[in-house]
Amino acid sequence: MKEIFLLKLGEIVLKGANKRQFEDKLRQNIRRRMKAYGNFDVYIMQSTVYVEPMDDEADIEGAWEACRCIFGLVSLCRCRPCQKDIDSIFDAVEAYLGDDLDCAESFKVESKRSDKAFPMTSIAISQEIGGRLAEAHPNCLVDVHNPAYTVYVEVRDLAAYVHGPAVPGAGGLPTGVGGRAMCLLSGGIDSPVAAYMIAKRGVEIECVHFFSYPYTSELAKNKVLELARLVTKYCGRMTVNIVSFTQIQEAIRDNCPEEYFTLIMRRFMMEISQRIAKDDGCKALITGENLGQVASQTMEAMAVTGAVVDVPIFMPLVGMDKEEIISIARKIGTMETAILPYEDCCTVFTPKHPKTKPTLGQVTHAERKLDREVLIQEALSGVEKVTVKYDDEAFL
Ligand code: ATP
Ligand code: MG
């Protein structure tokens, strides 16, 4: 008999009146994600998502890996459905989990009966199945307190389901329930993690990347597209807006005092990002900024860069240590690409002694010779929009 997935809803169950809307979104997201792996039926009952392959061609392993990255789910298990009678349940456990039990030192059975019409209580189910399994697997001892392996039996409306231990889901809220935000994506470790963190809260992500050809190479740009592609494993397809920043950086170099280079450059980035964001329906900006990490990440510097925008700026990494950020980058699979040694436009024309405690007055004075609006319009007129999705070929 076939295998299906039971996916347990996360925080959605707390959403009260909005629960229905959240569930609809989640089901839609899972359906879309499953398409690449064949013909699957996806439905939600009793706070559980059922993902069921409809034929033998379905790529179960691929679908399972994809489900592990979908936001809105706390835990996932692969299970075998069977008829709702105790003999069928036992046969299903034996056929599906018998090998696992042979390898374990001890076990217990945990049952849940949401179909109250089923004639046995949960405890009676566990005792009966446990007893029969103990006989069939004499080397695997029953241990209800600290078992090496747990067999789960769920008697639900449509069928009974048997499975081994669940694995953690991606957590968070279903993509799309929290609106849309624009992430400033560099080629570094931090910004892909920042995009992931906000995506996890149900937000659709779009990205903007500034590059300074010929100061930064084509490879550096592809690195950023590759980082975006890796993040789409979690957040679904996204658009990356590629903005040429060369002219602006040269104008800053030629017209502004060196100690303000980075700050002025970052103010342009923010303002251009906000304009693209507004055009595309994004209601917030996301950056990978982290308090105290570099000169432009002091409170004073953040105030000066944030002053050019009026949408919220989300900085999900602001209070984390580098080690914490790196461990998330490793978990989501962006670390290896992020540390490839291609330059970022932030490292072009870096001042020797950057201003760490600027005031807004000092910065606006330092940029007075620039025609901001003309430079911004010029950059906006050349934006290249690239759609990125996980099943694209790698960019590097
Ligand atoms: P990251 O690891 O994300 O590059 P960082 O620690 O190197 O961050 P900065 O270089 O000061 O820090 O950049 C801070 C934030 O500004 C980045 O996290 C990113 O959100 C944004 N940013 C920097 N450079 C670019 C760029 N070339 N294009 C788009 N956004 C950028
Ligand atoms: Mg950087």
Keywords:
396 residues, alpha/beta, VC0802-like, Rossmann fold, 2 domains, nine-stranded mixed β-sheet, elongated, binds adenosine-5'-triphosphate, binds magnesium ion
Describe the overall structure.
With 396 residues, this protein is α/β, with parallel strands linked by helices. It folds into two domains: 4-170, VC0802-like; 180-388, 3-Layer(aba) Sandwich (Rossmann fold). Helix content is 39%, strand content 21%. It is built from 13 helices and 15 strands. The strands form two sheets. Strands 1, 2, 3, 4, 5, 6, 7, 8 and 9 form a nine-stranded mixed beta sheet that branches. α7 (246-255) packs antiparallel against α8 and α8 crosses α13 (372-381). The longest helix has 19 residues, at 261-279. The mean pLDDT is 94. The chain binds adenosine-5'-triphosphate and magnesium ion.
Task: Give the tally of β-strands.
Answer: 15
Give the structural class: alpha/beta
Globular, elongated, flat, extended or rod-shaped: what is the shape?
elongated
User: What is the H level of CATH, i.e. the homologous superfamily of the largest domain?
Assistant: HUPs
Largest sheet: 9 strands, mixed
First and last CA, distance: 42 Å
Please state roughly what percent of the residues sit in beta strands, choosing from under 5%, 5-15%, 15-25%, 25-35%, 35-45% or over 45%.
15-25%
Chemical compounds bound to the protein: adenosine-5'-triphosphate, magnesium ion
Query: What are the segments in which pLDDT stays under 50 over at least 5 consecutive residues?
Result: none
Give helix % range.
25-40%
Radius of gyration: 26 Å
In the CATH scheme, the class of the largest domain would be Alpha Beta
- Report the total helices: 13
CATH-defined architecture of the largest domain? 3-Layer(aba) Sandwich
Number of domains: 2
Sequence of secondary-structure elements: EHEEHEHEHEEEEEHEHEHHEHEHHHHE
The name of the CATH topology of the largest domain is: Rossmann fold
User: Mean of the pLDDT scores?
Assistant: 94
